[in-house]
Amino acid sequence: MSILDRFKKKADEKKTHKHNENVLDLVKDPAFAKASAGREKTAEQKAVLKENTGRAHHVLHHHHLSEKTNQFSSQGRYVFKVAKDVNKIEVRNAVESVYDVHVASVNMINVRGKRRRQGKSVGRTQDWKKAIVTLKTGERISGLSEGV
Questions:
Q1: What is the torsional sign of CA 26, 31, 34, 39?
Q2: In sequence order, what DSSP letters do the residues of 51-92 get, joined into one string?
Q3: What does the DSSP 8-state code read for residue 24?
Q4: Is the pLDDT of residue 47 over 60?
Q5: Distant-in-sequence, close-in-space partners of 111: CB < 8 Å, separation ≥ 6
Q6: Would you call 42 helix, strand, or coil by DSSP?
Q7: Tens-digit pLDDT profile for residues 67-86
Q8: Where are the domains of the chain?
Q9: Fold of 56-135
């Protein structure tokens, strides 16, 4: 039985070791940093993590991409899908806090969902809200697709 007890002890030690490891310790570990070094982004692509953006992650869902929005981005206008219950002031504050830019104006559009069919059944996609954010002249949001 002593042989089996030895294997059980080793298995228990491995479980407790993995359980006690902290994710932040892995990030600080130099071996982990070397492993992720090949995947580093260029200076232009690096995302800046913000400490306190407040409610911004509830307001801004994601950047809306289309041909028209790519043309807008070359003019300093960016389009976001936002929560349905937000107003222009909340969108302005969220964009300024997340991207460190100055917003000149915000236009909001309620987009109705499209009708879709699946055989006999007919339904609609979700309604959503679009915010067109115009930045002050000379400012850009790096990381979002620029006009091609």
A1: negative
A2: S--TTHHHHEEEE--SHHHHHHHHTTEEEEEE-TT--HHHHH
A3: H
A4: no
A5: 127, 128, 129, 130
A6: coil
A7: 999 888 889 999 999 999 99
A8: 2-39, 56-135
A9: Alpha-Beta Plaits (3.30.70)
